[in-house]
Amino acid sequence: MKNFNTTNLINDLTLDRNLKEDLHNKILAGNFKFDKDILDFILVYISKLEHRVSKIVFNELSLKTGLAYDELMSRCEWLHEMDLEGVQLSKNHKELYEIFDSLNILFQENNIEHYYTSGILSFLLVGQELERYHHDIDVFVNETDLEKLEAVSQIYGFSFYRKLGDRKNGTKRIMLKMQFKEIDIPITVFMYEREKDNSITQKDYYYDLNGNLMVELIYNNELSAKLSFNDEIKYFHNIPYKAISLEALYLCKKGGRPKDEYDCAVFKDYVNEKNLNDLIVAVKSNKPSENVLLKDKTKIDFLTKSNDKGLYYGN
């Protein structure tokens, strides 16, 4: 793509003074920092114009940016399909990389056992740059490291807090959250326990309809844990981290929302078919989940501990 001056580009796209002024004001209001984000915004804006006008402006945009007309149209259609109108993708990706690096440094320097389970893995695990918008980061953390994680978070620029969120049956989940500096991309911390036989039990703590603090125990037998929670060390920007396997990620995303299907298309050729089939069989032999009353006072105190944001309702 050719480098461009935004004002000159807008002036060259159309002779319509009102159109120029409106587009220019909206770009100023958006406070864009990256040319790619400005171009995406212009694409979406143009696509909403009357068809005859939008076709003329698209042609001019192709000439001024050096990008093929069909390439611009495909990009515009993709932005609509992924519901990315008004989203600054370059800014989002820059912030995600900054958070990911900082969190990985925290994990490494404090020996915190973790496995990422975010949509960003669809790209990072196969060596690709992020493409779509990501509104959060998800990570599993061993319960034995949670107090340490909370204790050191602020040193690395993270806040650590608790929220209440909805579960499907109307009960309220206790969610552990982190946020890096003032960046509005939350990190959700999912909890698990590594058993003596190397199986893994995921823990989902919640208040039932009677106000009792419960925990749903989600069992992963030794084989499904081995195939899902990958102990191979990965690197991003030369910083180590761990993540769930591509096969586990594929099972989580396949048949899901449009963005999940998009992610699957990115990494499906890297999925190990044997490991995937073995994981499917192993998951079928997992013990059924159980819901039990939480009686451990230490865990209760940690989960319900007050913090600067308080324990409040939200997603």
Reading off the top of the CATH hierarchy, the class of the largest domain is best stated as Alpha Beta
Flag low-confidence runs.
311-315
Return the domain count.
2
What would you call the structural class? alpha+beta
- CATH fold-type name of the largest domain: Beta Polymerase, domain 2
Biggest beta sheet attributes: 9 strands, mixed
Query: Any idea what the CATH architecture of the largest domain is?
Result: 2-Layer Sandwich
Strand element count = 11
The chain-level mean pLDDT equals 88
In angstroms, what is the radius of gyration?
23 Å
Q: How would you spell out the order of helices and strands?
A: HHHHHHEHEHEEEEEHEEHHHEHE
Brief digest:
With 315 residues, this protein is an alpha+beta fold. It has helices spanning 6-13, 17-30, 35-47, 51-65, 69-81, 89-109, 121-124, 146-153, 222-228, 246-253, 258-267, 273-284, 297-303, and strands at residues 114-116, 137-142, 158-166, 172-180, 187-194, 200-207, 213-220, 229-236, 239-244, 290-293, 312-313.
Question: Describe it for me?
Answer:
With 315 residues, the chain is α+β, with helices and mostly antiparallel strands. It has two domains: 6-87, no CATH class; 90-313, Beta Polymerase, domain 2, CATH 3.30.460. The chain is 44% helix and 23% strand. The chain is built from 13 helices and eleven strands. The strands form two sheets. Strands 1, 2, 3, 4, 5, 6, 7, 10 and 11 form a nine-stranded mixed beta sheet that branches. Strand 8 (229-236) and strand 9 form a beta hairpin. Helix 10 runs antiparallel to helix 11 (258-267) and helix 10 packs across helix 12. It is elongated and about 70 Å long. It starts with 5 loop residues before the first helix and ends with a strand.
